[in-house]
Amino acid sequence: MPNMQERLDAAVDKAEVDTGLLHNVVHGSITTEVNTEGGKVPSVAKVLNDMRVLMEADEAILYLIANGDSTTIVHTKNGDVPSAAKIIHDTKTAMDADAKILHDIANGDTTTVVHTDNGDVPSAAKIIHDTQTALDVDAQIFHDIANGDADTVVHTENGDVPSVAKAIQDTRNTIQSGTNDLVEQAQTAATTATEQATQSKSAALRAIEAETASKQALKDAQTWVDGTDEEVAALGGRHSAREWVELAEETTKGCFPTTVSGVATANQTILPLPEALGAIDQVLMVSVENLSLMPDTYTLSNDGKSVVLQYPLSVNERWCVKYLTDFQSMGAALDAVLYEDM
Q: pTM (2 decimals)?
């Protein structure tokens, strides 16, 4: 076991070694690293220098971020960072693009479709034009139904619709076919009665009676064709075929579009009509300054004598209303012609 002197000498030796290590840590250069029992320890100068280098690098990064131009991207440990000028430039570019999109939507022509991040958007003019085109198509369909000839069949989204003239012609043909059958039956009965009278003289009286009945049937058939209402009523009917055709033609008069127009006064919302209408469906179109209004922006007054606008007009704005008169009576007359039991 070492004595006191030996232990004291060993402690002094160790203190001298540690003092040398500490001296190197305190006084070493900016590259000095001291080997100790716990590992390498940088000198004070190296620690201070490394901190200064890091701070200078951070200052350089901050300087580039703050003072770089609109194309500068600074590389950092956590990734690339754009300069303040680039952020402002990119934001302005995006805002300019959005402003250009809004401008194109508001000011584009009737063919303009604007491409956006969320898909294509039509311009306001294109929306109005497409709506006007659809309304013009519907107005043309109404016109073709009302004014088409006896061969016209109008194609609609819900199927083919005959013109008024074709509906009347088809009704006339149906009635004529029925009356021809009655005449043919009467003529057949007359022929049969004559043959029976010729075959047997003993049945002469019955043949004469049959011939008389046949003549009466022929007369009745002629009454069904063009007799008066009183003559047809005596046979249990209502009108002759000729009367039904004339009634159908008469009740469709006035079904062509009628136009009324004027110049608005301040805040005008009532558009007067020269005659009362029975339903809003008779109004084909309402336009202001040649622009058609949507159907949900106007209604028919309770007395049917005016169109009521949802929004008031300005002074001197030109307005126009196109409508059909007797629209409901026409439909009722056609139903009567088709379904009345003669």
A: 0.30
